[in-house]
Amino acid sequence: MPHTQAQVWSVHLSSGFGREGAERGAAQPVAADAGKPATSLRILVADDHPLVLFALDNLIATLPNVDIVARAQTVAQLFDEAARHEFDLVVMDLHMPGDGYDEGRDAIRSFQREHVGKPVVVLTMDDDARVLREALELDIEGLLSKRDRIDLIPLAIASAMAQEQYVGPAIRDLLEKAAREERREHVHRVLSRREYEVLSYYATGLGVTEIANLLGRSVKTISAQKCAAMKKLALTSDIELYRFAIECGVVQDEADE
Protein backbone atom coordinates (compact mmCIF):
# COMPACT_ATOMS: atom_id res chain seq x y z
CA MET A 1 0.00 0.00 0.00
CA PRO A 2 1.48 3.41 -0.91
CA HIS A 3 2.34 5.80 1.89
CA THR A 4 -0.08 8.62 2.55
CA GLN A 5 1.28 12.11 3.02
CA ALA A 6 0.70 11.93 6.78
CA GLN A 7 2.36 8.50 7.07
CA VAL A 8 5.48 9.57 5.22
CA TRP A 9 5.99 12.77 7.16
CA SER A 10 5.08 11.28 10.53
CA VAL A 11 8.08 8.99 10.11
CA HIS A 12 10.26 12.06 9.68
CA LEU A 13 8.65 13.64 12.72
CA SER A 14 9.53 10.69 14.91
CA SER A 15 13.09 10.62 13.57
CA GLY A 16 13.96 14.25 14.25
CA PHE A 17 13.17 16.04 10.98
CA GLY A 18 16.73 16.28 9.82
CA ARG A 19 18.17 17.64 13.05
CA GLU A 20 20.89 15.03 12.71
CA GLY A 21 21.76 16.45 9.29
CA ALA A 22 21.84 19.97 10.71
CA GLU A 23 24.13 18.86 13.55
CA ARG A 24 26.49 17.33 10.99
CA GLY A 25 26.56 20.69 9.20
CA ALA A 26 24.92 19.05 6.19
CA ALA A 27 22.91 22.00 4.91
CA GLN A 28 22.90 25.56 6.18
CA PRO A 29 21.39 27.89 3.60
CA VAL A 30 22.70 31.16 4.97
CA ALA A 31 26.05 31.73 6.59
CA ALA A 32 27.19 35.19 7.66
CA ASP A 33 30.61 36.41 6.60
CA ALA A 34 33.13 36.59 9.41
CA GLY A 35 32.72 39.74 11.45
CA LYS A 36 29.42 40.70 9.82
CA PRO A 37 25.95 40.47 11.37
CA ALA A 38 23.79 37.63 10.09
CA THR A 39 20.92 38.43 7.74
CA SER A 40 17.96 36.11 8.05
CA LEU A 41 16.57 34.35 5.02
CA ARG A 42 12.81 34.92 4.97
CA ILE A 43 10.74 31.96 3.84
CA LEU A 44 7.07 31.45 3.01
CA VAL A 45 5.84 27.88 3.46
CA ALA A 46 2.61 26.60 1.94
CA ASP A 47 1.05 23.15 2.21
CA ASP A 48 -2.51 22.03 2.81
CA HIS A 49 -1.46 19.37 5.31
CA PRO A 50 -0.88 20.72 8.87
CA LEU A 51 1.62 17.93 9.60
CA VAL A 52 3.85 19.10 6.75
CA LEU A 53 3.78 22.68 8.03
CA PHE A 54 4.64 21.41 11.50
CA ALA A 55 7.51 19.35 10.08
CA LEU A 56 8.88 22.35 8.21
CA ASP A 57 8.63 24.48 11.36
CA ASN A 58 10.66 21.89 13.28
CA LEU A 59 13.26 21.63 10.56
CA ILE A 60 13.72 25.33 9.83
CA ALA A 61 13.91 26.12 13.55
CA THR A 62 17.22 24.22 13.57
CA LEU A 63 18.75 26.38 10.83
CA PRO A 64 20.72 29.53 11.65
CA ASN A 65 19.61 32.79 10.04
CA VAL A 66 16.47 31.33 8.48
CA ASP A 67 12.96 32.40 9.47
CA ILE A 68 9.48 31.39 8.37
CA VAL A 69 7.64 34.69 7.92
CA ALA A 70 4.25 33.20 7.00
CA ARG A 71 2.38 29.94 6.44
CA ALA A 72 -0.45 29.04 4.08
CA GLN A 73 -2.67 26.03 3.45
CA THR A 74 -4.34 27.12 0.20
CA VAL A 75 -3.17 28.91 -2.93
CA ALA A 76 -5.36 31.89 -2.00
CA GLN A 77 -3.68 32.12 1.42
CA LEU A 78 -0.26 31.86 -0.20
CA PHE A 79 -0.93 34.85 -2.45
CA ASP A 80 -2.40 36.82 0.47
CA GLU A 81 0.62 36.13 2.69
CA ALA A 82 3.04 36.86 -0.15
CA ALA A 83 1.39 40.27 -0.57
CA ARG A 84 1.57 41.02 3.16
CA HIS A 85 5.15 39.95 3.92
CA GLU A 86 8.62 40.59 2.64
CA PHE A 87 10.14 37.22 1.74
CA ASP A 88 13.10 35.76 -0.12
CA LEU A 89 11.88 32.28 -1.08
CA VAL A 90 8.77 30.11 -1.03
CA VAL A 91 8.54 26.41 -0.20
CA MET A 92 5.19 25.17 -1.49
CA ASP A 93 3.21 22.04 -2.20
CA LEU A 94 2.57 21.22 -5.85
CA HIS A 95 -1.10 20.43 -5.20
CA MET A 96 -3.08 22.68 -2.86
CA PRO A 97 -6.72 23.82 -2.87
CA GLY A 98 -7.05 26.97 -4.92
CA ASP A 99 -9.96 28.66 -3.14
CA GLY A 100 -10.69 30.68 -6.25
CA TYR A 101 -7.09 30.73 -7.49
CA ASP A 102 -5.27 28.55 -10.00
CA GLU A 103 -4.02 25.20 -8.75
CA GLY A 104 -1.03 22.97 -9.44
CA ARG A 105 1.33 24.14 -12.18
CA ASP A 106 -0.92 27.07 -13.00
CA ALA A 107 -0.61 28.30 -9.42
CA ILE A 108 3.18 28.14 -9.62
CA ARG A 109 3.18 29.96 -12.94
CA SER A 110 0.92 32.69 -11.54
CA PHE A 111 3.09 33.04 -8.44
CA GLN A 112 6.22 33.39 -10.57
CA ARG A 113 4.58 36.12 -12.65
CA GLU A 114 3.44 38.02 -9.59
CA HIS A 115 6.70 37.62 -7.66
CA VAL A 116 9.38 37.75 -10.32
CA GLY A 117 12.79 36.59 -9.16
CA LYS A 118 11.57 34.91 -5.97
CA PRO A 119 12.89 31.31 -5.89
CA VAL A 120 10.27 28.55 -5.69
CA VAL A 121 11.00 25.17 -4.06
CA VAL A 122 8.22 22.64 -4.63
CA LEU A 123 7.31 19.64 -2.47
CA THR A 124 5.08 16.86 -3.75
CA MET A 125 3.81 13.33 -3.24
CA ASP A 126 3.04 13.05 -6.97
CA ASP A 127 4.80 10.16 -8.69
CA ASP A 128 3.54 10.84 -12.22
CA ALA A 129 6.65 11.44 -14.35
CA ARG A 130 4.71 13.61 -16.80
CA VAL A 131 3.48 15.91 -14.02
CA LEU A 132 6.96 16.15 -12.52
CA ARG A 133 8.56 16.99 -15.87
CA GLU A 134 5.96 19.67 -16.46
CA ALA A 135 6.74 21.15 -13.04
CA LEU A 136 10.46 21.26 -13.83
CA GLU A 137 9.70 22.96 -17.14
CA LEU A 138 8.40 25.92 -15.12
CA ASP A 139 12.02 26.65 -14.15
CA ILE A 140 11.37 26.23 -10.46
CA GLU A 141 14.45 26.26 -8.25
CA GLY A 142 13.77 23.01 -6.42
CA LEU A 143 11.60 19.88 -6.61
CA LEU A 144 11.52 17.29 -3.85
CA SER A 145 9.35 14.32 -3.10
CA LYS A 146 7.87 14.10 0.37
CA ARG A 147 9.33 10.60 0.35
CA ASP A 148 12.80 12.18 0.34
CA ARG A 149 14.52 12.85 3.65
CA ILE A 150 13.20 16.12 4.99
CA ASP A 151 16.71 17.28 5.87
CA LEU A 152 17.35 17.67 2.13
CA ILE A 153 15.08 20.72 2.09
CA PRO A 154 17.83 23.03 3.46
CA LEU A 155 20.06 21.83 0.63
CA ALA A 156 17.32 22.68 -1.86
CA ILE A 157 16.93 26.12 -0.26
CA ALA A 158 20.67 26.77 -0.40
CA SER A 159 20.79 25.70 -4.05
CA ALA A 160 17.82 27.91 -4.91
CA MET A 161 19.42 30.96 -3.32
CA ALA A 162 22.57 30.19 -5.30
CA GLN A 163 20.42 30.17 -8.46
CA GLU A 164 20.95 26.45 -9.00
CA GLN A 165 18.11 23.99 -9.49
CA TYR A 166 17.90 21.15 -6.99
CA VAL A 167 16.00 17.93 -7.76
CA GLY A 168 15.62 15.45 -4.90
CA PRO A 169 16.88 11.87 -5.22
CA ALA A 170 13.42 10.28 -5.21
CA ILE A 171 12.34 12.55 -8.08
CA ARG A 172 15.54 11.85 -10.03
CA ASP A 173 15.14 8.10 -9.59
CA LEU A 174 11.51 8.22 -10.68
CA LEU A 175 12.29 10.28 -13.79
CA GLU A 176 15.22 8.07 -14.75
CA LYS A 177 13.08 4.95 -14.34
CA ALA A 178 10.32 6.49 -16.44
CA ALA A 179 12.81 7.47 -19.16
CA ARG A 180 14.21 3.93 -19.29
CA GLU A 181 10.73 2.48 -19.56
CA GLU A 182 9.85 4.88 -22.37
CA ARG A 183 12.99 3.87 -24.26
CA ARG A 184 12.15 0.20 -23.77
CA GLU A 185 8.65 0.76 -25.09
CA HIS A 186 10.14 2.55 -28.10
CA VAL A 187 12.39 -0.45 -28.79
CA HIS A 188 9.43 -2.83 -28.66
CA ARG A 189 7.45 -0.59 -31.02
CA VAL A 190 10.08 -0.28 -33.73
CA LEU A 191 11.66 -3.76 -33.66
CA SER A 192 10.18 -7.05 -34.68
CA ARG A 193 10.11 -9.80 -32.06
CA ARG A 194 13.07 -11.57 -33.68
CA GLU A 195 15.09 -8.37 -34.04
CA TYR A 196 14.51 -7.58 -30.38
CA GLU A 197 15.53 -11.12 -29.45
CA VAL A 198 18.80 -10.84 -31.35
CA LEU A 199 19.50 -7.37 -29.91
CA SER A 200 18.93 -8.66 -26.39
CA TYR A 201 21.29 -11.59 -26.76
CA TYR A 202 23.92 -9.47 -28.49
CA ALA A 203 23.76 -6.90 -25.69
CA THR A 204 24.63 -9.63 -23.16
CA GLY A 205 27.94 -10.19 -24.95
CA LEU A 206 27.10 -13.13 -27.22
CA GLY A 207 28.51 -13.07 -30.75
CA VAL A 208 26.52 -13.51 -33.94
CA THR A 209 27.65 -17.14 -34.33
CA GLU A 210 26.74 -17.97 -30.71
CA ILE A 211 23.30 -16.40 -31.13
CA ALA A 212 22.76 -18.31 -34.38
CA ASN A 213 23.59 -21.60 -32.65
CA LEU A 214 21.39 -20.73 -29.68
CA LEU A 215 18.35 -19.79 -31.77
CA GLY A 216 18.82 -22.33 -34.52
CA ARG A 217 19.14 -19.76 -37.28
CA SER A 218 21.87 -19.08 -39.81
CA VAL A 219 24.68 -16.65 -39.08
CA LYS A 220 23.57 -14.65 -42.12
CA THR A 221 20.02 -14.33 -40.75
CA ILE A 222 21.20 -13.27 -37.30
CA SER A 223 23.61 -10.73 -38.82
CA ALA A 224 20.82 -9.30 -41.00
CA GLN A 225 18.44 -9.02 -38.04
CA LYS A 226 21.12 -7.32 -35.93
CA CYS A 227 21.84 -4.82 -38.73
CA ALA A 228 18.12 -4.15 -39.24
CA ALA A 229 17.63 -3.51 -35.51
CA MET A 230 20.57 -1.10 -35.40
CA LYS A 231 19.30 0.77 -38.46
CA LYS A 232 15.81 1.17 -36.97
CA LEU A 233 17.33 2.51 -33.74
CA ALA A 234 19.79 4.79 -35.59
CA LEU A 235 22.78 3.02 -34.03
CA THR A 236 26.00 3.04 -36.04
CA SER A 237 28.37 0.90 -33.97
CA ASP A 238 28.46 -1.97 -31.50
CA ILE A 239 29.53 0.48 -28.77
CA GLU A 240 26.39 2.54 -29.39
CA LEU A 241 24.32 -0.64 -29.35
CA TYR A 242 25.72 -1.72 -25.97
CA ARG A 243 25.23 1.75 -24.51
CA PHE A 244 21.67 1.97 -25.82
CA ALA A 245 20.84 -1.51 -24.48
CA ILE A 246 22.03 -0.56 -21.01
CA GLU A 247 20.32 2.84 -21.00
CA CYS A 248 16.95 1.47 -22.07
CA GLY A 249 17.16 -1.64 -19.89
CA VAL A 250 17.14 -4.20 -22.71
CA VAL A 251 19.60 -6.46 -20.90
CA GLN A 252 17.72 -6.24 -17.59
CA ASP A 253 14.44 -6.73 -19.41
CA GLU A 254 15.69 -10.01 -20.89
CA ALA A 255 17.00 -11.19 -17.50
CA ASP A 256 13.65 -10.47 -15.86
CA GLU A 257 11.79 -12.46 -18.50
Summarize the structure.
This protein is α/β, with parallel strands linked by helices. It is built from 13 helices and six strands. The chain has helices spanning 5-14, 19-23, 50-60, 75-84, 104-114, 129-136, 153-161, 169-190, 193-203, 208-215, 219-232, 238-247, 250-256, and strands at 41-46, 66-72, 89-93, 120-124, 142-145, 166-167.
List segments where confidence is low: pLDDT < 50 over at least 5 consecutive residues: 1-37, 253-257
The share of residues in extended strands comes to: 5-15%
Rounded to the nearest angstrom, the distance between the terminal CA atoms is 25 Å
Output mean pLDDT.
82
Number of strands: 6
What does the oligomeric state look like here? single chain
Q: What's the alpha carbon Rg, rounded to whole Å?
A: 25 Å
Element-level helix/strand string? HHEHEHEHEHEHEHHHHHH
Main beta-sheet strand count, sense and barrel state: 6 strands, parallel
Which structural class matches the secondary elements?
alpha/beta
